[in-house]
């Protein structure tokens, strides 16, 4: 990447980051620009990646260059049939593509999901109890018991075919506590994740604030602050009007 | 006192944003070097797995994150690459996310620059092109990967490359790792790991870390790095501190602020209610 493009990239990255963060102060046109650019640029990137890295090497080149391979027409046409959804008169053609996707997807995923997320997990819950002696394994047994109890109680909470009263109610209440523990841990991790992302953006802003990037962060931040000051005085209602309101 | 607390509870939230900004910026400008002493067992699991592989083993590294989750996952990918190259392992990198192609290029630029300058492209590592339809890739690499990856990202045939010597499918590989901010790790476990008995590990965002605990318990995942903390742990284990470790300073300060605010707000609410 050339030096000029790197500096330009730094300015764009710093600018868009600051524009998006400016929403925390209040809504403004810079935020709107960044918001729309994000969606457009994201779609544009995916489109060009699929076009140049998949469509041309996997479809166009086998059809136009020796050794020719016309079998690629079958998946290509099935894929293209999905686009007919946009034309009501021939939208029925898309069913062929969808039929293939549904059949292929279901056939592949259903058996594997049953094995990976169902049978293996039941096995994983029972495994800690597969010991020949208590000695030396009591910690593993205790851990396994907590998981097994939590697992069964949470299942009771989601079992709606019997009224939740008596022993079932007690089990489902214990299940709620296990769920709350999970949600608490998940929320804590979510907070940490969001801070990490924020840190990442700040780290980049710091990088672009250097002389190498001609102080992109400082300049853009200053421009935005000036905009907000001007905007504040421009939109401020006259005192008499405010009193009347 | 009551009036003061009521005013404090109605504080402009933008002041909290500003405080948070300052707290996160301080360690970036001046690193504090706060210790990271609590290394996760699941991160150690991945480290040990790579340590146990004999030199020359092949690792399949799926880089499946886009710029949105870059701060958490990029340090993980760099740390794993650094460790793998240090152990003289062969690495095959690929991506199943269109938004990750730029990040893969960034890694490709960094490998000869500072991650592993002595490693040669085509001999020690290869970068495979982006492929759509992850399910097709995951099942195909289990059978014959050349049927879906005949060339590398530059269009060069990979079958004759030294790095691919003796590699036809995942049975010939030592470990698979998927670093992702999506649910692709689940698919790798189901479609490749479990199906072909292929040892698999992962790296994920902190948000999705909890969801992978069952896979760790059953051994379906051999190790897992979660978020920036996972990256910091791994950097600590390989003894090369980078972005993950420096991020821990910022996270510690931010977490302290959140804990402080929660405790303070609760005390104030109790004060207003009972005193």
How would you describe this structure to a colleague?
The complex is a heterodimer of chains A (245) and B (275). Helix content of chain A is 75%, strand content 0%. Chain A is mainly α and 245 residues long. Chain A folds into three domains: 80 residues, no CATH class; 62 residues, no CATH class; 75 residues, no CATH class. In chain A, helix 5 packs across helix 6. The longest helix of chain A has 41 residues. With 275 residues, chain B is of the alpha/beta class. Chain B has two domains: 52 residues; 201 residues, Rossmann fold (3-Layer(aba) Sandwich), CATH 3.40.50. In chain B, strand 2, helix 5 and strand 3 form a beta-alpha-beta unit. In chain B, helix 1 packs across helix 11 and helix 4 crosses helix 5. The termini of chain B are close together. The model of chain B has no long low-confidence stretch (mean pLDDT 94). Chains A and B meet through helix 2, helix 4 and helix 6 of A and helix 2, helix 4, helix 7, helix 8 and helix 9 of B.
Q: Assign the CATH topology of the largest domain in chain B.
A: Rossmann fold
Name of the CATH class of the largest domain in chain B: Alpha Beta
Strand content of chain B: 5-15%
Bulk shape of chain B: elongated
Shape of chain A: extended
Rg of chain A is 29 Å
The multimeric state of the shown protein is heterodimer
What is shown here, in short?
Chain A is mainly α and 245 residues long.
List keywords for this structure.
heterodimer; A: 245 residues; mainly alpha; 75% helix; extended; B: 275 residues; alpha/beta; Rossmann fold; 11 helices; 6 strands; elongated
